[in-house]
Amino acid sequence: MGGVGAMVKGASYSYAVFCGSFLRSPRLSFSIHNKKKKLLKFRSFSSKSTCSSLQPPDVSRLAKTAQISLTPDEIEEFAPKIQQVIDWFGQLQDVDLQSVEPSIRAETENNLRDNVPETFDHRDAMIGAVPSYEDPYIKVPRVLSMD
Amino acid sequence: MILTLQTPRPLSRLPRFLPFSTNASITLNQSQPATCTSPPPPHSQILSTRHSLLSRQFSAADLLRSHLNRLNLTEPHLRSFLHLPDPSDLLAQADSLDRRIAAGEDVGPLAGVLVAVKDNICTADMPSTGGSRILEGYRPPFDATAVKRAKELGAIVVGKTNLDEFGMGSTTEGSAFQVTANPWDLSRVPGGSSGGSAAAVSARQCVVSLGSDTGGSVRQPASFCGVVGLKPTYGRVSRFGLMAYASSLDTIGCFGSSVADAGILLHAISGHDRFDATSSNQIPKFISQDVPNFLSHFVSASSFESKPLKGLRVGLIRETIGDGVDAGVISAIHSAASHFEELGCSVNEVSLPSFSLGLPAYYILASSESSSNLSRYDGIRYGNQVYADELDSLYGSSRANGFGSEVKMRILMGTYALSAGYYDAYYKRAQQVRTIIRNSFTEALNQNDILISPAAPSPAYKIGEKKNDPLAMYAGDIMTVNVNLAGLPALVLPCGFVEGGTAGLPIGLQMIGAAFGEEELLRVGHIFEQTLENCRFVPPIIAEDIAS
């Protein structure tokens, strides 16, 4: 347990330094790049041990869920960048958030308007924006497929 | 000489006596190099426009032509605008206004004021693309409430400005259409995502502009371009018509070349809107029974007492002036702190615990919410469609074709963070961090009247510098995101220069206030600005034009 604890502590420190290194002037980019490589390695190792139940992002599956058809080139380009950012997100795992209430947003009142239908005056402009329209239908391709 | 006209209700908000210099905007002094001292500090272009029009010194058509000339000269270099209407449309509006003034009719407080609007804010008579190919050519069937209100008060919308696609970015390089240049150095970015709106005001292509601020997208470009940027309290300005990026963080903000102008524009667009359930009913602290009080804050420096901000407690956020922040920026902020002390404030350092957690929390929340908000762009009801035989493929191809890389990546990251099993680990934890940050600001603002920090850790950097490194770009938002998480108002105004470009690069000071405390920010900001012994923040690209 102590071992894991030490790794967790180390992870927070490396995250902080990692963030800090990105705040430095770009004139130091060469040395930051090397530092980055070292820190990246350390971080991915520690994030695996602190968040072992979380699978790393599977970009093709995410793209399917998000309904964006990515090319294989794009998947290859995005995967390391997304991995890097998700790893960076992981630093929140190390924060003690017990008994902290989540906030949906800043404090606002609940100002709902009356549930009364109104006529929208610019229906034509709205219909005019539809890419594929055949009065009175918005045309779409077939919804069900065999596979 | 001020003509006495019958003043209608909107005008009665303005003091009948204009207490400061009434030189028209086009007799500004020539800008001088960054090291010199004092041409007169900026006063309100909006109020001097009003004075010029009502006293018949200039016509609205004259003022419009003068701005359009400057716009046409500078636009090939800056590329601030994605859409410019036919000039004859604008001239028709100006002529109509001139006729009404000549007939002694009432005109609104923004009459004749040229406003540029960020392209993620819907305008019915101009395309609104959100900076994205997926909405290329899209014309909304309605005006955003903020635009509607500005137009009702007489503003002339001069065009739609460039932005990072859907507000995602800090450089405006993320636009699908063009890269906007910084008027202070054409090889540098104007900041983002409201880079076009900031550049347009900086280069005096228009008088004021609207932008949006979700994680700093008004404040950071204001700093990079040497203009005033105002982010209101979440809920102060209706989001109806602002293309949603992260609904719990988005705000519409204002740019101006002076604190007074940003404040007057904010005043015009603020207030509850039944079309935005998160817009507040709270009576803003600057609309009291005695309405002229609001504008009476923008008095001339000659009427200030010797210590006009005596007793004001200013807290300098310690975490924003340490490691990773440019030495020039830190120095400019320390000078600003000294200036506050000269004005009678007590300036102390204050520490905000968990400050650095705000950045990953912000990006988790923003990516997650954006993945949901951008699911509406499916090529069916609006936007550009890539046809396919099956619905899923149509969605996939339309979105793949229409969205840029940064947008795609953020949607994917958000999709991951919200996936079953990960919600608790990411989104929920980020919301808990939001609570911690809110509480830390509340505590700091109990002990201080305003908090100050830089608006960005560096001045404007070169175009292309951060393009391939998302985390390097995100890191630059460290000064601004916590304010969005807490929903607080913040004002950025130029406070100094660092070396770079041909006349130096401007640095912005961020002032953060309590919720709905915009009036205090504007009052303090105006006094700070009017007493700043420094040059006008007029970029070299237009210095000659302004002088002539």
From TrEMBL, chain B:
One of the GO biological process terms: glutaminyl-tRNAGln biosynthesis via transamidation
GO-annotated cellular components: chloroplast stroma; glutamyl-tRNA(Gln) amidotransferase complex; mitochondrion
PROSITE patterns on file: AMIDASES
GO molecular function list: ATP binding; glutaminyl-tRNA synthase (glutamine-hydrolyzing) activity; hydrolase activity, acting on carbon-nitrogen (but not peptide) bonds, in linear amides
Xref: InterPro entries: Amidase (IPR000120), Amidase_CS (IPR020556), Amidase_dom (IPR023631), AS_sf (IPR036928), GatA (IPR004412)
Subcellular location: Mitochondrion; Plastid, Chloroplast stroma
Positions of the catalytic residues: 118 (charge relay system), 193 (charge relay system), 217 (acyl-ester intermediate)
KW Transferase (keyword) present: no
EC number(s) reported in the record: 6.3.5.7
Ranges for domain Amidase: 62-522
Gene3D superfamilies: Amidase signature (AS) domain (3.90.1300.10)
Primary location: mitochondrion
Quaternary state and interactors: Subunit of the heterotrimeric GatCAB amidotransferase (AdT) complex, composed of A, B and C subunits.
NCBIfam families found in the cross-reference section: gatA
Functional summary from the UniProt entry: Allows the formation of correctly charged Gln-tRNA(Gln) through the transamidation of misacylated Glu-tRNA(Gln) in chloroplasts and mitochondria. The reaction takes place in the presence of glutamine and ATP through an activated gamma-phospho-Glu-tRNA(Gln).
The family this protein is said to belong to: Belongs to the amidase family. GatA subfamily.
Note: This protein may be expected to contain an N-terminal transit peptide but none has been predicted.
Protein name: Glutamyl-tRNA(Gln) amidotransferase subunit A, chloroplastic/mitochondrial
Species this chain originates from: Arachis hypogaea (Peanut)
Organism classification: Eukaryota, Viridiplantae, Streptophyta, Embryophyta, Tracheophyta
Gene name linked to the record: GATA
